[in-house]
Amino acid sequence: MHVFVTGASGWIGSATVDDLLAAGHRVTGLARSDASAAALEAKGSAVLRGDLDDLAGIRSGAEQADAVIHLANKHDFSDQAASNAAERAATQTIGDALAGSDRPFLIASGLAGLAKGRPASEDDASPFHGPDAPRGGSESLALEFVTQGVRSVGLRFAPTVHGAGDHGFVAFLAAVAQQKGVSGYPGDGTNRWAAVHRTDAARLITLGLDKAPAGSRLHAVAEEGVPTRTIAEAIGRTLDLPVTSIAPDDVDDHFGWIGAFFAMDLSATSAATRQLLDWAPTGPTLIDDLDAGAYGVAE
C-alpha cells in the first residue's frame, strides 16, 4: 500500500514511517525542511515538500496515495486558534480528496475531555466539534467522512508517548523541574496519565491501517493511568531533585502552560483496541524510561 504521512518526521511520525516500511508499505512523507526530507529519504521514504498550511500539496499527496495517516499538528499553544484552524483545514482537505474512494484516513487525536471520573474508552465519542474546538474538532470532522465513502479512523494517543529522545509533555515537565529545583505534582498527585511507548504507538498505527473498520476509534494506550505523583517522583529520582506537592491554585504559575494538562485526569483504557487489532504493547513503561535516563540527568 502507498501511504501518505503528514508529520512524518515528528516524534510519532518517524517511528510510524519505520514501522510502515518494515511492514512492506511504500511511504511518502510530508516534510517542511531539508533536514526532515533528508531523514525520510535515508529511511527509504519518498518525500513531498510542504507543511500543514500547504493545502494544495496535502491534497495532492492524499489523491496519489492508497491511504493517509495524518499526524501533523502545529501545537502552537501561544496561538491555539491558528493551530486549530490549520488542523481543521488540513482534515477537510484530506477528507475531500479521499471522498468516495473507500481509502483509509487515520487521524491523530487525544484523550482529554472524553470522560469524567473514569478512564476514557473507545466508545466515548469526541465532544469536540466545529472550528473553534480543540484541534479544530478534527477527529469528529474526519469521522463524518465515513458517510462519504472514506475509511476514517481516529487515533487517540496517550498524553505521554514516551521514549529516549522524547521532546513532549514529560520532557517539558522534566525541564520545569530542573528550572524550579523541585519536581512537583498537582495537589495530592492522584490524577492519572495514560502512557504508551513510541514503538508500541507506531505498531498500533500500522495495524489500524490494515485492520480498523470505518468509524473506529483506537486508543494508543499501554498503561491505563500513571499517577502524577509517581511521574514526579521518577523525575525527581532521575534529576536528583526533591519532590513536592503544588497547591491547585499555584499549578499554572509553577508549571506554565502544561499545568492545566498535568492537573487533568487523562486515564484511558485500550481494551477494545487490543481485541480489535490483536495489539499487545511490549515497550518499556513510562517509569522504566524515566529511571533509565530517557529524560536527562542532573548536571
TrEMBL record:
Region entry Disordered, spans: 117-137
Cellular component annotations (GO), alphabetically ordered: cytoplasm
GO MF annotations, alphabetized: aldehyde dehydrogenase (NAD+) activity
Pfam name, any one: Epimerase
InterPro entries assigned to the protein according to its UniProt record, in alphabetical order: Epimerase_deHydtase, NAD(P)-bd_dom_sf, NAD(P)-dependent_oxidoreduct
CDD domains from the UniProt entry: SDR_a7 (cd05262)
Domain NAD-dependent epimerase/dehydratase as annotated: residue spans: 3-212
Highest taxon of the lineage: Bacteria
Entry-linked PANTHER family: NAD(P)-BINDING DOMAIN-CONTAINING PROTEIN-RELATED, PROTEIN YEEZ
Protein's name in the database: Nucleoside-diphosphate-sugar epimerase
